[in-house]
Amino acid sequence: MRRMTKLPVAAAALILAATPALAADATEPAFRALYKELVETNTVVNSGSCTKAAAQVAARMKAAGFTDDQLTLFSVPEHPQDGGLVAILPGTDKRAKPILLLAHIDVVEAKREDWQQDPFTLIEKDGYFTARGVSDDKAMAAIFADSLIRLKQAGHKPRRTLKLALTCGEETSGAFNGAEWLANNRRDLIDAEFVMNEGGGGRLKPDGTPELLAIQVGEKHYQDFEVTATNPGGHSSRPVPQNAIYDLAAALKAVEAHKFPVRLNDTTRAFFTSVAPTQPAPVAAAMRAIVADPSDAAAAALLSGDATVNATLRTTCVATQVAAGHAQNALPQRAVANVNCRIIPGETVESTLAALEGAIANPAVKVVPKVTRNKIAQQPPLTPAIVDPARALAKTHFPGVPLLPIMVTGATDGPFFSAVGIPVYGVPGILHEPDGGGVHGLNERIRVSSVMKGRAYLHDLIIAYAK
After folding, report:
1. CA 3/CA 408 separation, integer angstroms
2. Residues 294 and 227 in one domain
3. Is the CB of residue 335 less than 8 Å from the CB of residue 324?
4. Which domain holds residue 406?
């Protein structure tokens, strides 16, 4: 997932009760086997196979009683290894719209020489699962598939039809994206009242006790821009004032200095309102002030000192790559940078481009948006029908732990579904390490207790939503 954002550090002041240990149940060994098989199947784009992983899950679901017409394996000829699976557990009320469980099964590249272990061997040690994908996003994929298997085996008949989509391509821009393909080509397969997706979860304290649960209601838009400075160049023994590297450097410093305006929405207002009472007086006052008046410069300045809070308040743009020059003894003819922006709901790629051009203020420097991965996500409603069941179950599974609405500052596959009119929510339940747990990096890890408690919570949440 692109969203692995830590929730605001300021929230660490919350004083919460630890969750009781979760006892193992008779279905846990089957879940562990599914999870292990999924994690140990390499699904990195161009080197692994989501198609293989999807087929493995489908085989387990068929063994549990799903019929062939309830399991759809899909791929396209151009990308035969980037396939996925849609599974359907029929409901009893044909008039009630289904619920879609969405999880991506592709993972970010992991090189053996960089890791302490084989990244595609699941290791359980010292209370942690470690391997590529144990958190992002194969924990959720395994939990969702396991939940439908358990319901099928138990003969449970939900009122609403439950659908599961395991897809590929979330981690790679420009690759075949299964979520996009389903939304655009097989709407009949995935049509639903709403989508349960990654992007929520929650966070642990450093000692492993729960800090907060999070339900994602909306996300920022991922957009890259190419910033280019050009010059005729020349011999490096005769420097001239016009230099492509210097022009690009000045442009990037202007991007660094530019602050986009604060823009709040229902989700972020609710978040700051909920968190404010737990904070030290100056932070609490600033949160209340920014909710009352987003143009309050003093409040914005104080809150922006926390990187994640700053990203929650506004669109952000940052330089991520630079390439310049063609020879060590020549003046540069070309200097290029990638500027990565995360655009807040309510703003557009066009308005962000205009802001960058205005900040750079040099017509010799060209700013061009790169290929857009998806349309800007539509903000779903923060409705009691979604929030209330999640909060009620949290009181049982995570007593004393607050559940907060968040806007993800990264990105998921959710926008492909919101673009066709299906609201998407990142569900709570799987709690992550405060340092991110190595997601997208080295030695990705997640606590065994986080997976098992998340499994129990999400199973009950699926049943509650499907009533």
Report:
1. 6
2. yes
3. yes
4. 9-220+377-466
CATH of residue 35: 3.40.630.10
pLDDT value of position 23? 54
Residues 256 and 384 reside in one and the same domain: no
From CA 299, how far away is CA 279, in angstroms rounded? 14
DSSP 398-410: STT--EEEEEESS
CB 269 within 8 A of CB 291: yes
Residue 5 has pLDDT above 60, yes or no: no
Residue 160 domain-assigned? yes
431 vs 445: CA distance, rounded Å: 12
Q: Considering its fold, how many domains does the chain have in total?
A: 2
* C-alpha to C-alpha distance for 303 and 286, rounded to whole angstroms: 7
- 449-463 pLDDT, tens digit per residue, is 999 999 999 999 999
Q: Are residues 203 and 112 in the same domain?
A: yes
- Asked whether 324 and 332 are in contact (CB, 8 A), the reply is yes
pLDDT tens sequence across 189-246: 999 999 999 999 999 999 999 999 999 999 999 999 999 999 999 999 999 999 999 9
Instruction: Single out the residue in 353, 369, 385 at which a domain terminates.
Output: 369
Instruction: Say yes or no: 236 and 341 in one domain.
Output: yes
pTM of the model: 0.88
Q: Residue 10 half-sphere exposure, CB side, CA atoms within 13 Å? A: 27
Give dist(CA 35, CA 177) in Å, integer.
22
Tell whether 135 and 50 lie within a shared domain. Answer: yes
If asked whether residues 440 and 340 sit together in one domain, one would say no
In this structure, is residue 1 part of a structural domain? no
> Which residue is associated with the tokens 């039809």?
161
The answer to whether residue 3 scores a pLDDT higher than 60 is: no
Residue whose structure tokens are 């990105």 = 411
Do 31 and 162 lie in one domain? The reply is: yes
| Half-sphere exposure for 284 (CA within 13 Å, toward CB) | 9
What pLDDT is attached to residue 24?
A: 61
**Crossing angle of helices 138-153 and 28-39, rounded to 10°:** 140
Question: What tokens were used for 457?
Answer: 């919570």
Tally the residues of the chain: 467
The token duo for 284 is 């609490």
Any residues with CB less than 8 A from the CB of 289 and at least 6 apart, and which?
296, 298, 299
CA-to-CA separations, 14 to 134, 171, 281, 310, in angstroms, rounded: 27, 33, 14, 20
